[in-house]
Amino acid sequence: MTGPSLMDSLFQRSIDDLIKALRLSPPGTETAFVAKAIDEIRREIKSTDPHTKAAALQKLTYLHSLHGLDMSWAAFHSVELSSSSAHSHKRTAYLSAALAFNPATTDVLLLLTHQLRKDLSSPNVHDVSLALSTLSSICNTDLARDLTPELFTLLISSKVTVRKKAIATVLRVFECYPDAVRVCFKRVVENLENSDLGILSAVVGLFCELTENEPRSYLPLAPEFYKILVDCKNNWVLIKVLKIFTKLAPLEPRLGKRVVEPICEIMKTMGAKSLVFECVRTILTSLSEHDSAVKLAVSKVREFLSEDDPNLKYLGLQALAIVAKKDILAVVENKDLVVKALSDSDLNIRLEALRLVMCMVSEDNVMEICRILISHALKSDPEFCNEILGFILLTCGRNYYEVIFYFDWYVLFLGEMARVPHCQKGDEIATQLIDIGMRVKDARSQLVHVARELVIDPALLGNPFMHAVLSAAAWVSGEYIKLSRNPFEIMEALLQPRTSLLSPSVRAIYIHSAFKVLMFCVHSYLKLNGEESLIPSTLTDSELVSDVEVDDHNMIATNGQAPSASSVTHHLTQESLLALVNLVEINLGPLAGSNEVEVLERSTNVLGLIKLIKPMILGSLNDSEGDQTNRELKASETVKLIFDSCSEDLGPVSVNAQEKVPIPNGLVLKENLDDLEEICGDIKLPVLTSFSLVRPQFAEVSNSAECQDKEESELSTESTSLLAEHRKRHGLYYLSPGNAVTVSNDYPPAHDPYGKAIVEDEDLAKLTEKSLVTGKKPIQSKPRPVVVKFDDGEVTNVVTNRTRIKADLISDAVNEVLLGDEATTSSSSRRKPPKSRRVTEDSNISIVKLVWEVANTMGMVKRGDVEPQARIKNMIAKTSIKVIVGCMVSTGRGTGRIKQWKLKHQSFLIFFYSNAFLTKILRSVVVINILVFFSHWNWLC
Amino acid sequence: MIRGVIIMNDQGKPRLIKFYEFQPPEKQQELVRSIYRVLCSRAENVSNFIKADSLFGPDVRLVYKTFATLYFVFIFDKSENELAVIDLMQVFVETLNKCFREVCELDIVFNFYKVHTILDEIIMGGQVLETSSEEVASAVDAISRPLSLSLSLPLSLRVCVCARALVSSCEWVLRCNRHLLLQLSLRVLEHGAQKYLWLNSTECFFSSLYFLLFRFV
């Protein structure tokens, strides 16, 4: 590029010209114009003429500051111009430096040191203050270290403006270079006794910032601050002093006693609202044990609340929020004003009031408050309505539904909330519905009732915000179908035509729930028939008859006496069941051609099952051949097994559970699954023989860590004995038989009037403990699964670590100056980096990593979502779906895809069986699929 | 501590951006945009505070006030008193009023440097230095007095003077070297046409050039 010509400097645009031109440029051409201007500036800034250079730099700074243009390339020109003798040029240069230099990365910053030093000791006041303000903007460690001596001199400058600016700059210098404290601190403290208000306010401001980070070191200065508090009449200074005392008072109780009186005096006599508010805040945060003062403060808050100024109202509510943590009564006293503020026109105020109302929630009034709020939500605009709902959900769900006593009521209330127009909190409501279903056994019957209401209403299907809630309702009605009064009705609701409005993922849940309902009906039917001695004798002596089944027997039997369930069984005739099966078949038939994989596979899944059981139901109409009965028997066994695995309770899963599972040898999680193809290609895959096709794979799976069991097993292995064998070999991965019974008996009833202390997690603790204690082989190596409480608090602590250490460095130096050396040692001993925190955080990360890797390998969970809990849940959900998909593809579609799916299938199984917690949940699914798979093949061939 | 001061107009155009901790320019623009989005959604006669945790981190607040077409925004953390910051904003506006005599948006637009100088007198490195508008105004006066002397003529004036000089000098240069003059005026014309077409006052310049051309060609 050529240097600037005479023409360029003669006709150089000044900054005013630039701004004018920018304003006149037609919209849309601005960027082009700015680019042109930058080109000009690039040429002009190289000029040797300081005027031209300064004008160019001015324009560039303007464009940088207001149009966001990069000017890091011109950093050197700023430095160059700063040495100009003209003050205006200097000002331009320093302002561009202050606005554009990054203290951490701009490397020419060091070149500025000399110029800054020269200007700091210049006789011109303007130069000095310019240099000071630049230094406070771009200070880094090197600059701070090199310029500390100059700053030290300026701290006793006779000129007030210079001195107060120097004091303000000291803060940045201390932060960047804590050793400067040793040099400057005495002089800074001396300024505390200065009579000039400007200087005093600067010093007090400085101490206010310093005490914010580490108050303890400044306790020795308390007498000076006290003197200012009593003598000074300036609002600014008093506010800052009050801020300092807010930090200091909690450290030294005697100090609190001393200051409380003057503060109350100020509060009574001074008129400035800002000062009064600061007094109120100081008393409420740090002097809350002085009752009379608190009373006075709360009365001031009440005054604020009744003012018309929305700012005062807002701040008053915030002050109440401070009290709410310590003394809820003060809030309750002002309940009327708080509730009134709920209908204020200002969203800030409403939110603050809402937060306060939620603070007041306790076991006794939760129902009343929720009712008030929901009626309020119905009246207010959508945004605030959702805020209210969000707050209710948050408060009620806090700490495992701590405040909820009547779960039946809460479940009903959740249903009500879902129906509020504008409700966009569907996801949260859905989560709580499922969560309560899993955690609170006694709420289930009411939950099923609520779910029925939701599922059955065709109007709700049209609202996309409801879909999450509906999916939860569908899941609940499928999972707890035992408790339903009329499964047929639920089935109809799950298959109603308007379900086509649902998104595929929700639809898949609907279909799966329909599957569960179907299984339940078929099973109950078989039970009825079984009483007519149709039950196969082979089953009774089978190893598989576990206590879980016994439990079910009992349950059905007891339920049979209850009027609700008996109605189910009475209606269960062959005809009605057949009608039900046909209904399912008709409705799901078209879905087998759906474009959505989830929907397609699940409906195929159900249809496959129907194919299997239909002959059985029909069979009892015209049973003639022995072959027919044989198959029927097999089908009934399958149904029974599927039902059993479906009826096992799903429990909540601890986030840490994943971590507790050791990765089995030989399972490389990071490996791409495609590689498996090669490895497995070596294993002989006998084609077209039904059982040997699966058998070797299964055997390999079960011995994943051990040597491969190549023994060809007999072709006629029953699926049941296969499972039994597996159960025997890997008993530790299964729930021990019998624990379901003990646990279910141990559940404290929610309605128990004495059971006030039903804390959910305790229940859970009991639950998990039981399942371990009663386990057949308690394994020492596997620690007890932690109750579902994820210590989020740990993680956040680490973030603040670094700044704290920096603050400690300053306070070390302060201590040294104020108290002498002995204090330093004590304070530095405080400053041990909390190592244990790191560890826990790392391990948390490792969970995430592990889950993520597993999920990634399987290609199921998309990248991006890092929230561990959600991820695990997500993964579990997806995994089960995929297993079904996998199995069903292999059963439903010819042998061509079997190989492919077998590979994935295999890796899934390795993972499942290595993984206790997953197995607990997924066992049912896996078992279902294996069984369906087997019987299907048997049937086909 | 005050974290930043922003002035923007009611269309979201920034007029002054000052952060007391370094922010890269793209980040600044983004912050201004997101603040504007919040501001324009707020009704009149509501409280002036906005929680800015999502933009700046925990405990950081934002207070704004509307003066005519301008939003004044102060960003601060918990070591400042909310009501005091509103007062400070008032001081800032009063000072602007004193320095510009009935300040309006255009004053702030065209006096980028002076507004920065005023702000620097009130807040330095995030610390409040001065809360009396008289003091600030006199300090700014003292700084900008030598500054105004060194201000160069605006471009339009420079062009005019140049054109006049050209026209008056051409009378005698004319006879000596017609071609040279023609060349010179053509070059100036070309240069000016490229760069300064947007200036109304350039008209006189061009008219004089055309006058010259028509007279001698």
From TrEMBL, chain A:
PANTHER family: AP-3 COMPLEX SUBUNIT DELTA-1, DELTA ADAPTIN-RELATED. Keywords: Golgi apparatus, Membrane, Protein transport, Repeat, Transport. Belongs to the adaptor complexes large subunit family. Residues 34-508 form the Clathrin/coatomer adaptor adaptin-like N-terminal domain. Adaptor protein complex 3 (AP-3) is a heterotetramer. This is AP-3 complex subunit delta. It is found in: Endomembrane system; Golgi apparatus. One of its GO terms (cellular component) is Golgi apparatus. Part of the AP-3 complex, an adaptor-related complex which seems to be clathrin-associated. The complex is associated with the Golgi region as well as more peripheral structures. It facilitates the budding of vesicles from the Golgi membrane and may be directly involved in trafficking to the vacuole. It also function in maintaining the identity of lytic vacuoles and in regulating the transition between storage and lytic vacuoles.
